[in-house]
Amino acid sequence: MLTACAVLTGLLLAFHRAVPNSLGRAGSLLEAFLPWLGAVVVPLLGLALLRRSAVALLALLLPVAAWTYLFGGLLLPAPQPGARELVVVQHNVSDQNADPTGTARALADVEPDLVALEELVPGALPAYEKALGEDFPYHAVRGTVGLWSRHPLGAVRTVDIRPRGIAEDWSRGLRTLVRTPHGDVAAYVAHLPSVRVRASGLASARRDESAGLLGAAIAAEPQRTVILLGDLNGTVDDRGLAPLTSRMNVAERGFAFSFPAGLPLARIDQVMARSATVGHIRTLPATGSDHLPVAARVTLR
Question: Which of 27, 61, 149, 219 registers the highest number of CB atoms within 10 A of its CB?
Fold first, then answer.
């Protein structure tokens, strides 16, 4: 039994793409928590040692090898800062945040080049504009998403990522051109629809549709270098985000589990890039949101 469990764990890690999504989106649900599947090794190892089962211990090499191949690189030290590097912060600030000013100041303390925010409600927007305005003189807001920048912005427009059946006033995507000292960068800020875990499985159809629309917009983007920041309501392993992860680079170092803030189990707040490298991503201390902020270092090519 121990040997079978070890082999099954290894196979799920190595061949998670083979788990079908046809029934309750089981594949996406597995991939949402894929790094945690490695935790199964710990009790299995204890039982194998207790029973002195050489076969089970040998079988445990399979999940260990698979996990190391998939995620071991994320544990390596962050690369040294480069000359063409931008520091970016991504945060779903929560529409229930009781301290927008404190949240904004905490993000500014990291001294980033760009700050992307989601769930910006009209009542809180002035507080963010005031608290961030001194350090970030340029900003753009469309609907409930916004970007604050140390560098000039231009060509700001809404990106329509509404799934079918969503009201026209639902606006969660923007695109702007950031004129950095290292060249122009197209920056996208997005907040994809939420997913829910139900008895029938993972409800992610709207998230997946929105990801497809965003992926198509980025594919059509004429600017060579692109940075995407957003609450994508999915991990980079989740096949539902394939329209994005197939086109963009994801973080090479760091797990940065960002949700829920009280017990972070998954990173659904993402920084991705095209023609640039996301060298490292990390979480920042909790704010008044149910998400943790994440900060990433992006090296332009």
Answer: 149
Question: What average pLDDT does range 135-160 have in this prediction?
Answer: 97
Q: For residue 74, with 0-12 CB atoms within 10 Å meaning exposed, 13-18 middle and 19 or more buried, which class applies?
A: middle
pLDDT reading at 58 higher than 90: yes
Tokens at 47, concatenated: 């039982």
43 membership: H or E segment, kind and range? helix 41-51
List Cβ neighbours of 102 (8 Å cut-off, separation of 6 or more). 287, 288
Q: With pLDDT > 70 as the criterion, what percentage of the chain qualifies? A: 100
Which pLDDT score is estimated for 220? 97
**The 276-283 sheet, strands edge to edge:** 138-142, 145-149, 114-118, 85-92, 294-300, 276-283
Element (H, E) at 65: helix 61-71
Q: Which residue has the tokens 């692109």?
A: 226
Residues near 263 by beta carbon (within 8 Å), at least 6 away in sequence = none
Q: Which of 179, 257, 263 is closest to 223 using CA atoms?
A: 179
Q: Are 239 and 27 a contacting pair, CB within 8 Å?
A: yes
How many angstroms separate the CA atoms of 56 and 208, rounded? Answer: 39
Range in 59-68, 81-90, 209-218 with the lowest mean pLDDT? 81-90
Strand intervals (E) in 234-275:
269-274
Q: Which helix (H) or strand (E) holds 210?
A: helix 205-219
Q: What is the largest CA-CA distance in the chain?
A: 66
Are 294 and 89 in contact, with CB atoms under 8 Å apart? yes
User: CB pairs under 8 A, 24+ apart, for 30-35?
Assistant: 31/235, 31/237, 31/238, 31/239, 32/202, 32/234, 32/235, 32/237, 32/238, 32/266, 33/265, 33/266, 34/70, 34/235, 34/237, 35/67, 35/70, 35/71, 35/237, 35/255
pTM above 0.85, yes or no: yes
User: What's the pLDDT score for residue 230?
Assistant: 98
